[in-house]
Amino acid sequence: MVVKVTSICCIGAGYVGGPTMAMIALKCPHIKVTVVDISQPRIDAWNSDELPIYEPGLDEIVKQCRGKNLFFTTDVEGAIAESEMIFVSVNTPTKKTGLGKGKAADLTYWESAARTIAAVSKTNKIIVEKSTVPVRTAEAIEKVLQRNCNTSGVRFDILSNPEFLAEGTAMDDLTAPDRVLIGGKIEGQEGTDAVASLVEVYANWVPQERIITANLWSAELSKLAANAFLAQRISSINSMSALCEATGADVSQVAYALGKDSRIGPKFLNASVGFGGSCFQKDILNLAYICECHGLTEVADYWYSVVGMNDYQKNRFVKRVVSAMFNTIRNKKICMLGFAFKKDTGDTREAPAIDVGNGLIEDGARLAIYDPKVSDAQIAMDMGAGMSNITTYKSHIEALRDAHAVCVMTEWDEFKSYDWGEIYGVMQKPAFVFDGRLILDHDKLREIGFIVYALGKPIEPFLRSAEGN
Ligand SMILES: NC(=O)c1ccc[n+]([C@@H]2O[C@H](COP(=O)([O-])OP(=O)(O)OC[C@H]3O[C@@H](n4cnc5c(N)ncnc54)[C@H](O)[C@@H]3O)[C@@H](O)[C@H]2O)c1
Ligand SMILES: O=c1ccn([C@@H]2O[C@H](COP(=O)(O)OP(=O)(O)O[C@H]3O[C@H](CO)[C@@H](O)[C@H](O)[C@H]3O)[C@@H](O)[C@H]2O)c(=O)[nH]1
């Protein structure tokens, strides 16, 4: 029987759980949506005026739905017990210790959520895997649920519904997704009914042709594969950026020419100081580890190389900064504009600014960091011991005052509209700009007097002679 869902619980009130549930609440006023988390501060923030995450458009939707059909609570057990459908959107980070450490996904939080579901469920539940998980996780979770449920006759149907939103554009991505993918046990009637129940939820705003169904394992693997393909494009264009610098080609022109081929397409071809974010590296390592476990060493190595190229790009950037500045940055103030892993988010997980910052500090630099959305406390947490060489600023011009160089680490729009003449005036000379995001007007900066290094662009004579090539 297809259940027309009227109550949903989501375990995990993070970057995925919060925005996705806010969207369901907005589009499905007939469904009561309760988002639960074990973190009291996170739930308090969701219930306050200062939401725990910054995402354009999120505030308005939460304010519109909260208290009506959208609720945030730490009463995990109560919310599970009274809901028909449970989304699990907990974190699945890379394992830090034990078997597969540094590669495999850590499913501790997932399993703990499953055990809680089993313990408190007295009625049938449809369980939706929203977290990104290794292929065949649903199988393991089903066993945990069945073996731990104390009430006889309770049925659990497990679906895979991976999330494809990108941070910074989450609300637009959720409003009009390219596709919604639902995996289930579509060979049996009950599995088919469970899939239909979730399809029915999304059909409230997503056109039917964009809701695609698959078997469980295909859905789980598609998520890992999608991230691997996206990251591979960035590593591919970044590999070209190194070759462009060596040959005098211009990576933006190369990317434009590539993107005009309709088989390649123009998106995700922006060369950068490296991809960051909580997903790409974690999911590729997880994918490669799964390949290793199946004895597919060559396939694993292929995907590891995507992460390897990303590390190379970050190291290469640090080397450029050091060699351009006469091979010494000791005690020089270097300003980092941007710390978040991309614009329009305050998220710093795996941000390239962290590795680049550590690299510069290792060479003796004093860092001045300005980011419009990242808090000082977050930077301190990410940089740890390095903080003794870092000052954070609330104003970009103060961060830039007396700096020898500026490194653009995040593509925030506001950096483009700064008065770069004024900035030149307050910096030490020669004043260097290292554009790791290719967002500034390099010709104009050179006219002002800056020495400019732009990733993947022809190297200017001053830098070539400083670097001895
Ligand atoms: N961040 C993204 O843009 C994104 C996009 C698509 C998919 N994903 C995937 O979605 C999942 C969640 O990612 P996120 O960025 O939202 O993580 P997050 O760390 O922001 O949020 C996870 C939340 O789950 C809570 N939690 C953990 N165990 C719990 C439990 N047993 N009971 C209740 N709450 C619990 C944590 O306290 C935390 O608040 C991951 O698997 C990730 O790979 C993330
Ligand atoms: O051409 C590009 C595009 C992106 N990036 C960088 O790549 C990283 C990731 O960007 P993006 O993919 O836009 O953001 P995420 O929020 O990490 O989203 C990715 O990871 C999510 C978590 O799995 C998926 O849901 C999304 O589909 C997938 O795009 C960021 O550092 C970007 O600056 C580039 O360097 N060049």
TrEMBL record:
Its EC number is 1.1.1.22. One of its GO terms (biological process) is glycosaminoglycan biosynthetic process. One of its GO terms (cellular component) is nucleus. Keywords: NAD, Oxidoreductase. It catalyses: UDP-alpha-D-glucose + 2 NAD(+) + H2O = UDP-alpha-D-glucuronate + 2 NADH + 3 H(+). Belongs to the UDP-glucose/GDP-mannose dehydrogenase family. The keyword Ribosomal protein does not apply. One of its GO terms (molecular function) is NAD binding. It comes from the Eukaryota. Pathway: Nucleotide-sugar biosynthesis; UDP-alpha-D-glucuronate biosynthesis; UDP-alpha-D-glucuronate from UDP-alpha-D-glucose: step 1/1. NAD(+) binds at residues 12-17, 37, 42, 90-94, 131-132, 167, 279-282, 349. The active site is at 279 (nucleophile). This is UDP-glucose 6-dehydrogenase. Residues 335-442 form the UDP-glucose/GDP-mannose dehydrogenase C-terminal domain.
